[in-house]
Amino acid sequence: MHRTSLPGLVYYHLYPHPRPNDPHNFATHLTRNLVPEVRAETQTFYGTLDCIEARYPGLNYTHPPHRMRLSRFTHHRRLFRAFDELGLTDDEILSLCRWEGTRWARERYEREEGVRVRDTTGDEIPDWVEPVKHRLFSAHASAEAVADLAFSLIGRGPGGEALQQAEEESEDEMESVGIELNQRLSAAAEARERGADVVMDEAWEQWLKEAAERGVLADPVAAFRAGHTFPPIAAVATEVVSATRISSTASTMPPAGTAM
C-alpha cells in the first residue's frame, strides 16, 4: 500500500476538492500563499529586512506565540487548523515546515556560516518586578490591619506637623498607645470570632464607615494629599491615651457592691 507523503496529506486536507484556480500541490501552495504571508509578517514585525535576524526570523510552527503571529493570515490559519485536525506531532510539523523564514532556515544558516543569530525580540521588555499589593480596608477589616494603617500614617495628614512634634517629644508614650490600641482591637476581634456581639471600637467603626462613603480607603496616600483627614489618628491620639487609662483603671476596680 502506498502511503501518502506528509506534504500530500496536508495538501489534500486543505484542498479536498481542488478547483481549477487552487494550487495543484503543496509546493505550489507554499510558493503562492505561505511564503508571501511569512514575508508580510516579517516586514510587519521587524519593520525592515536589513538585518540578519529579519532575514532569518526563525519562525517555529510549533511555538504558540509564533503560531499566534502567523494566524493573522488566512492561509496560515488554515494550515494550523489542518495540523491540529490531522493530529500531527511537533516532529512531523518541523519536518514539513522547511522554507523561508522558518526555524529550519535559521538553523541551516547558522550551521553553514558558523554564527548564531541573536533573537532581540524581548530586549525592550523590562525584567519582571512583583507589584506591590495594596490592601483595601472595609468595616470588617482586621483590628491589626486597621491599627497598622492608622499608626503608620501618624503625622502625615493635615495637622500632622504638630502631631509629629508631639511624637518626638514623647516617643515612648506614643508607642505604648499603639500597643494598647492594637491589643484592645485584637481582643475585640477575637471576641467577635467567638460569636460575641461586641463593638470593635466606636471611633474606628464610625471613621471607617465615613471613609468608605467618601471612597478614600482604596488609596490612603492620595486621600491625604487631597486633604482628607484620617481620624481617629488626628483626633484620637490623645483620646486613646485617656481611654486606655480609664479602661485600665476600670479593670482594676472591684465590682460594684464589693467591699473594699
Task: Provide structural commentary.
It contains 13 helices and no strands. The longest helix has 23 residues, at 171-193. It is an all-alpha fold and 260 residues long. It is 59% helix and 0% strand.
Give the averaged pLDDT, no decimals. 75
Q: How many helices in DSSP terms? A: 13
Q: How many E strands?
A: 0
**Poorly predicted segments:** 233-248
Radius of gyration: 36 Å
Helix fraction? 55-70%
Distance between the termini: 111 Å
Label the structural class.
Answer: mainly alpha
What gross morphology would you assign? elongated
Instruction: Please write the string of helix (H) and strand (E) elements.
Output: HHHHHHHHHHHHH
Classify the beta-strand content into a percent band. Answer: under 5%
Q: Note the main sheet.
A: none
Give short descriptive properties of this protein:
single chain; about 260 residues; mainly alpha; 13 helices
Question: What would a concise description of this structure say?
Answer:
The protein is mainly α. Helices cover 59% and strands 0% of the residues.
Topology summary:
Layout: H1 6-14, H2 26-46, H3 52-55, H4 64-70, H5 74-86, H6 90-96, H7 103-113, H8 143-152, H9 160-169, H10 171-193, H11 202-214, H12 220-225, H13 233-252
